[in-house]
C-alpha cells in the first residue's frame, strides 16, 4: 500500500477477504456434526505445523497448552493439518487428553477456511492458516518464533503475538530473507516460549474478544 502512494493511491484499508464455496460449508458442517460440536460450543483451533519447520513450537508444548485450555475453560479443541503432518499429529495425540479433535488431510486448502470460520479462537505457529483465520475475523494467537514481528504478522486486529524480545539474535528471519536453520543451533526464540506464557496470552485474547454464543 505504501508503494501505491507513489501513484496517488492513499488508501490504508487492509481488510482481507476469504471466499468459501457452498460445498466446503456443507463439508465443514458435516464434520462438526460427526464430532458433536454444538452451535453453543466455544471452539479453539490449533495448527502445530509450518511449511518452514524452524517456526514450529513442538507437539509437547501444544499438548500442554491444549490440556490446560480444556481444563481451565472447557472449550472444544480442533487441530488441523495436512497429510504430511500425520506423524506429528499422532505424536501430539499420544501426549494429550481425549477432548482434542484432530483432522489432517480431510480438508483441502480450498475447503479448510469453512472449518476455520467456525473457530472462536485460533492458536498457531506463524504459518498460512493463521492468516486465513485472521482474514475471517477469528481472534488469533501467533506463536512467532524467529520471524520479525514487524514483517508480516496479522496485526490489523483481533490478534496477539507471542515472542521473546530480549534475544540478541532475534529476529533472524524475514519475508525477504527467510532462514531454515537456527544460526545459534538451539532455537532459543521458541524454547523460551513456555506453554504458560502462551496460555496467559490466550487468556488475554479471550478477555479482549469474549464470545457471545447464540443459543
What is the top-level CATH class?
Answer: Alpha Beta
- Poorly predicted residue ranges: none
Structural class, by secondary structure, is alpha/beta
Average residue pLDDT:
85
Strand order of the largest sheet: 3-2-1-4-5-6
CATH architecture: 3-Layer(aba) Sandwich
Proportion in helices: 25-40%
How many independent structural domains? 1
- Radius of gyration, Cα only, in angstroms? 18 Å
Alpha-carbon distance between the termini? 41 Å
Our count of helices gives 7
The H/E string reads: HEHEHEHEHEEHH
- Going by CATH, what is the homologous superfamily? Glycogen Phosphorylase B
Here the CATH topology equals Rossmann fold
The best one-word shape is globular
Number of strands: 6
Report the sheet with the most strands, covering strand number, pairing sense and barrel closure.
Answer: 6 strands, parallel
Q: What amount of the residues lies in strands?
A: 5-15%
